[in-house]
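Reviewers of the previous submission asked for a worked example of the structure-prediction workflow described in the proposal, so we include one complete record here. The input consisted solely of the amino acid sequence. No template or homolog information was supplied to the procedure at any stage.
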Amino acid sequence: MVTVTIENGKFSVHGSFDFGYMGIYHDEKILILRTPAEVRKWESVSAALDTKICSDDDIAAFLTAQLNTWEEKVRKNQKRINDNFLVRIFEDLEACAYPFWETEGLYVSELMPEDPESLYDGHEDEMSVLEEAFNSSPNDGSIEKPDAEAALRRMYPMFRFDAFLASLKPDCMSLSDGRITFQCTDGFGAAVACCAYDALDSDLVFNDWHNF
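From that input alone, the workflow returned the following structure tokens.
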């Protein structure tokens, strides 16, 4: 849970926000980048408060409730959100046949094929199913989705998923009008996730992916 306060005319966030595989974000890593005057213009704020008479503290209290509601929603749908993150990561790896096997600790050597680059071959149909299920698609439980992590682990048994996921470090996250963002980096020298960023809307759709 978090609490939003006004400090020196700016919003500050205290507490923690669990974003699943992308990390637990604490205090100064949870950002509200707009001024109180700018936040008053948000549709979500003006729909809930009389922005002509409410105080900045009233807005901070509203943002507190909003962030905690976001976290509850993310926690409730964490499996789908984690899966969507992994689909994004492996879309990137496949797109450039990224040689993750050149990074010590990210692969199981005895499970590598003789030609490492061939490990990306033959997964087109399965990846298409995952991409169709997760790209520009709600993760709020309104749509049934396949188990993407299980599928990816089956496709890429040589990739050390557990080591990769355990290494992820939260960079920062933010709240804006109607969406939240995350940014995280892996602990393997940013070999696979380098400032990996996305923005989620109210339906928990990933809609602004950046990596590297």
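The mean pLDDT is 97. We consider this example representative of the routine output the project will generate in years two and three.
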